[in-house]
Amino acid sequence: MIHIAQAIVVEGKYDKIKLSSILDAVILVTNGFRIFRDPEKMALIQYYARTTGVIVLTDSDRAGFQIRNYLKGAVRDGKLYHVYIPDIYGKEHRKEKPSAEGKLGVEGIRKDVLLEAFAKAGVLTDEVPEKIDPITRYDLYELGLSGSADSKARRKALQKRLGLPDLLSAASLLEVLNTMMTRQELQQLLADET
Q: In terms of CB atoms within 10 Å, which of 29, 57, 122, 176 comes out highest?
């Protein structure tokens, strides 16, 4: 079992059960959209953000991104880390049919894929190293990932190549890239494509 120092926020109890079998960590459940009306749970998440830091791990569907964005806006003090699972289509074993978008949620993702997502986010150690020379919005512009006619398509291709969900905005992609690689590694990755 792998120890994670930060608290982890997931959407549902089955996500918590899945992670509890893999990770030794405090795992908080939002109960889906109920987090929007649960000031006690929000206060607890804010407390962990200020003390240990909080890792947000939601499904890669629209609902998951709504919850993730809500938490991003609600947690003003402390550290918030984002772990993204890739878009994998299928159906969870306990469900009769796939979700509305047809994507697997956290509970349906294989252990190795989950651990890889945590590794990409840089949170498999007790400390998350700070980037000395982070990737900036200007870098995304210079690399053609924002501000041009085909930048959205280029971002989507990069996200697919890195195994990231399709629904990431340019700002969210910037956050994720900064947990995964340096500016030079991103430049090299994009240069290798051409």
A: 57
- Separation CA 113–CA 181 (nearest Å): 18
- Token pair in block for residue 24: 């030794």
Q: Which two tokens stand for residue 174?
A: 């910037």
pLDDT at 192: 84
Q: Which two tokens stand for residue 53?
A: 């830091």
Q: For the CA atoms of the chain, what is the radius of gyration?
A: 17
As a whole number of angstroms, the longest Cα–Cα distance in the chain is 51
DSSP letter for 129, please: P
> Measured between alpha carbons, how far is 140 from 148 in angstroms, rounded to an integer?
10
Q: What is the pLDDT of residues 40-51, one digit of tens each?
A: 899 889 989 998
Work out the angle between the directed axes of helices 39-51 and 62-74 (0-180°, nearest 10).
Answer: 70
Q: How far apart are CA 38 and CA 15, in angstroms?
A: 19
**Residue 180 CB partners (closer than 8 Å, separation 6+):** 120, 121, 122, 162
> pTM to 2 decimals?
0.74
DSSP annotation of 127: S
pLDDT at site 131: 53
- Which parts of the chain register pLDDT below 50? 126-129
